[in-house]
Amino acid sequence: MVDWNKVREEFPVCKKYVYLNPAGGSPVSQSAASEGKRFYDEMLEFGDTYWEIWLERAENIRADLAKFIGATREEIGFTTNTSHGMNLVAQILKERGTVLTMRDEFPSTTFPWLNQKTEIKFVEPTNNGYSIDSIKKALTPDIKILITSYVQYRTGFRQDLEELGKFCKENNLIFVVNATQALGIFPVDVENATSIF
Ligand SMILES: Cc1ncc(COP(=O)(O)O)c(C=O)c1O
User: Taking a C-beta distance cutoff of 8 angstroms, is the pair 142, 107 a contact?
Assistant: First the structure.
C-alpha cells in the first residue's frame, strides 16, 4: 500500500501546486535534489578527491537499477536523458533492417531513425491505442526492429509488454521500449519482455 502523504513529502512543490501533467519538466524530489547537492558540496570542499567514492556510488545505483527491472548490472548503461539513449540505440541498430513503430510516439522515439534515414513503418492507432493484433497485421518480412513506448505520452495508452515481447521473440524482432512514462509506476521486467529499454 503506497503512503501517498510520504510520497508527497518528497515533492515540496506539491504544497503550492497541483500537477496534472508533469511531462517535460517534472518536479524534482527531495532525495534527488539532496543527492545532486551532495555532489556539488563535496566538489566545493574536496575537489575530485571523492572520485573513487562517486564511482562506487554509480556502481551501487547500477546494481539497484538492474534489480528494479530484472536485468544484470552489465546490462545497465547510463545516458544523459531518454533522447540521448534513443539516439544511441538508433545508431547501434542502424544496419539491422526496417523499423516498425506506433504513429504518435514521442518524437525522440522516432526522430533519430528518421534523421538517419532508416526505413520506418507506422502502426495506425485505433481508439488511441495499439492492439497487438494491429501490430501483427503491420508486420512485413523486412521489419527487424519493433519500437514502442510502454505508456504513450499523448494518450496514456499502456502496451502489454509481456505479450508484445513474446511476439517479438517468436518473430526474431529486436524489441526497443521507451519506458519514460511508465518506469517506477508500472513494473518492468526486461527478461519477460526480452527488450532493449
Ligand atoms: C515517451 C517520452 N519519451 C521521452 C521523453 C523525454 O525525453 P528526455 O528524457 O530526452 O527529455 C518524454 C517526456 O515527456 C516522453 O513522454
Answer: no
Q: Which atom of ligand 1 is nearest to the CA of 23?
A: 14
> Once rounded to an integer, what is the mean pLDDT over residues 164-189?
94
C-alpha of residue 140 to centroid of ligand 1, in Å: 28
Q: Whose CA is nearest to atom 16 of ligand 1?
A: 153
- Same-domain pairing of 57 and 73: yes
- Which of 23-27, 88-92, 164-168 bottoms out in mean pLDDT, i.e. has the lowest? 23-27
Spatial distance between the Cα atoms of 47 and 66, rounded to a whole number of angstroms: 30
CB 96 within 8 A of CB 119: no
Does residue 178 share a domain with residue 91? yes
Expressed as residue numbers, the domain containing 164 is: 80-193
Convert the pLDDT of each residue in 40-57 to its tens digit: 999 999 999 999 999 999
Which residue, 151, 178, 10, 1, is CA-closest to 82?
A: 178
Q: Is the CB of 82 under 6 A from ligand 1?
A: yes
Beta bridge partners of 148: 177
Same domain, 99 and 145: yes
Cβ–ligand 1 distance for 83 under 6 Å, the answer yes
